[in-house]
From TrEMBL:
Residue span, Orotidine 5'-phosphate decarboxylase domain: 18-270
Pathway: Pyrimidine metabolism; UMP biosynthesis via de novo pathway; UMP from orotate: step 2/2
InterPro entries reported in the protein's UniProt record: Aldolase_TIM, OMPdecase_AS, OMPdecase_type-2, OMPdeCOase_dom, RibuloseP-bd_barrel
SMART domains cross-referenced by the UniProt entry: OMPdecase (SM00934)
EC annotation from Swiss-Prot or TrEMBL: 4.1.1.23
EC category: lyase
Record bears the keyword Lyase: yes
Record-level GO BP terms: 'de novo' pyrimidine nucleobase biosynthetic process; 'de novo' UMP biosynthetic process
Reactions mediated catalytically: orotidine 5'-phosphate + H(+) = UMP + CO2
MF terms (GO), sorted A to Z: orotidine-5'-phosphate decarboxylase activity
Listed name of the protein: Orotidine-5'-phosphate decarboxylase
């Protein structure tokens, strides 16, 4: 990679709008397209998404689990998806939420972020709930290889707050994650750039960012905001959640866009509509 991840992502967001299109080949979506729920249907679904999204959105986020469910043949389809998006110059974020300790975390980092990985993504989602520093192998390798990570911070599932809002002394768990990202992005922030350590903050977490006293704007972190669209996240929800940090936000939409398929031109239209709305909001 010739440029840092944050720099490349910021350029893609300026060019295409701050939209990340998800590729979530869930059984119900595949079948709603009139496809069979097998490897053949998976491949047709995923490659149609590639055709529609490549070169048209800031980033594309395949959900690894929906490929892994088909075993090695499903993973082979995922690798092809990542390779074709990479060839098109489209930023990829692999949603795999890996998180472990020691040599195991290092192996995950090598599998997804190393130049020698079978089909590396530009960025990987990772889970910090064994401790932020347990993610150090992935954070450091991503920085060294020009790639990025998105660390879960505030998620929109009902169980999330019981962990993420919990406090040790004056600092919440989410706050410690935000602090860690800010420290790892300090050099990029000093240059006025986005860093390589992003944060995942749900588009529908409402006032949680403010209530926990999180200053996302000071982190130089790209913020991946899942839940835009069908999950209830709209521009008003984004504004309530992110406010002045809007310029760092990459909103992710999957089901709403994918429901427009299977015709590629309808997917393209859905992407264009969402990207336009988000661009107007981010200004």
């Amino acid at each position: 990679m010739t440029e840092p991840f944050g720099t490349r992502l910021a350029a893609a967001m300026r060019r295409h709008g701050p939209l990340c299109a998800g590729i979530d080949p869930h059984r119900s979506l595949i079948e709603s397209w009139g496809l069979t729920y097998d490897v053949g249907g998976l491949e047709r679904f995923a490659l149609t998404c590639v055709e529609a999204f490549a070169g048209r959105v800031a980033a594309v986020k395949p959900q690894s689990a929906f490929f892994e469910v088909f075993g090695s043949r499903g993973v082979a389809v995922l690798e092809r998806v990542l390779a074709e998006l990479r060839e098109s110059g489209t930023v990829t974020i692999l949603d795999a939420k890996r998180g472990d300790i020691g040599s195991t975390m290092d192996a995950y980092a090598q599998a997804y972020l190393a130049p020698t990985a079978p089909s590396p993504a530009d960025a990987l989602t990772i889970s910090p709930f064994l401790g932020y520093e347990a993610l150090r192998p992935a954070i450091d390798l991503a920085g060294q290889s020009g790639r990025g990570v998105f660390v879960l911070a505030l998620t929109s599932n009902l169980e999330g707050p019981s962990v993420q809002h919990a406090r040790r002394g004056d600092e919440s768990v989410a706050g410690s994650i935000v602090r860690g990202a800010a420290a790892d992005n300090a050099a990029a922030r000093a240059r006025g750039h986005l860093g390589h350590v992003g944060l995942v903050v749900g588009a529908t977490v409402g006032p949680a960012v403010a209530e926990l006293g999180l200053d996302l704007g000071a982190t130089a972190a790209p913020v991946l905001a899942p839940g835009f669209g069908a999950q209830g996240g709209d521009v008003a929800a984004l504004e309530r959640t992110f406010g002045s940090a809007r310029g760092q936000v990459l909103a992710s939409s999957s089901r709403e866009i994918l429901a427009a398929g299977p015709e590629p031109h309808r997917l393209i239209d859905a992407v264009a509509r969402s990207a336009d709305v988000l661009t107007q909001w981010a200004r």
